[in-house]
Structure formats: C-alpha cells, structure tokens
Amino acid sequence: MQVRNLSYNARGTIDCEIEHPALGWIPFTASPGDVEELGRSIYAAAMTGEHGEIAPYVAPVPTVDELARQYEREVQQHLDATAKGYGYDDIKSAVTYADEPAVPRFQIEGLAFRAWRSLCWDYCYSLLDAVQAGTTPLPALEDVIAGLPALEVSYGN
C-alpha cells in the first residue's frame, strides 16, 4: 500500500494519506492500538521508516478570537474566585447586593464588586482592542490577570 505525508498528531498517532484502490489518496490515521490490522501495520511500518520521515506534531496557532475567549474565561474565573473569597457564590451574586440597603456591609461589598467588575472588563476590552490594532503585543495570561484593577472595598468607620 502506498503511504505518504506522515506526521505525528496531538494524540501521538500518525496522520498520513493512503492510496485507496477506489477513492485514490485519502486521509488516514495509523495507531499501534488500532482495532483494524491496517492501522497497526501502517503504524509499525512508519516507525521503521518504511514510508519515509514522520514530521513532528505542530500545534495549531490559536487565533486572536480563540485567545480572547480563553482569556475571557480566565478573567471570569478570577472575578468569581475573588467574590467567593468574600463568601458569595460568584461575582454575579455579589453584585446583586449593590442595590440592597438592608445590610450595609453587603451593599458596600456589592457596590465595590459591581464597580470592580466594570473596571476589569474595561481594562480587558481596551487591551484586546490594542492587541487587535497591533499597538500592543499579546500579553501572557498571567500578566493580564496581574494587570487587572484591584478590588477596593471601603467599609468606612
């Protein structure tokens, strides 16, 4: 069987093309644990070099939109974790207390969380705009989290 264009994939198996008698060249993944003999035999032959060199796996480069979604999830988790540290379920729960005057401490915290949430997202979207415009290089996720505005809760005296 003819085999060409071998490369490792993210799972450690081998992606390639095989020449099918009726369909011509088709994509195929060879694996040592394949349930079909064909997959096991192509993998074994590939490992001996019979079909040529196996290209290394190259991870896909995420798009700016994919990275933005990843960063957004992480920032949201940071906001929620901070609110949980104050005893709330998440930031949405904390913010609901901003308009509730019955317990002043909760209202103070709710107002602080509401303002902080807005400041954090403003920071993130401004940073995203700058990255997309090419005026700022893409920062590491840890740097984005570290650059978020600080939560300021002032209970007064």
If you had to describe this structure to a student in words, what would you say it looks like?
With 157 residues, the chain is of the alpha+beta class. It has two domains: 3-47, no CATH class; 64-147, no CATH class. The chain is built from five helices and three strands; from the N terminus they run βββααααα. The chain has helices spanning 37-47, 64-85, 91-95, 104-133, 141-147, and strands at residues 3-8, 14-20, 24-30. Strands 1-2-3 form a three-stranded antiparallel sheet. Strand 2 (14-20) and strand 3 (24-30) form a beta hairpin. The longest helix is centred in the last third of the chain and has 30 residues, at 104-133. The mean pLDDT is 95.
List keywords for this structure.
157 residues; alpha+beta; 5 helices
Assign a percent range to the helix content. Answer: 40-55%
Instruction: Give the overall pLDDT as a whole number.
Output: 95
> What is the H/E string?
EEEHHHHH
Strand line-up across the major sheet: 1-2-3
**Beta-strand proportion:** 5-15%
Structural classification: alpha+beta
Biggest sheet features: 3 strands, antiparallel
Number of strands: 3
- Total of DSSP H or I helical runs spanning 4+ residues: 5
**Span from first to last CA?**
82 Å
Low-confidence stretches: none
How does the SSE layout of this entry go?
Layout: E1 3-8, E2 14-20, E3 24-30, H1 37-47, H2 64-85, H3 91-95, H4 104-133, H5 141-147
Antiparallel strand pairs: 1-2, 2-3
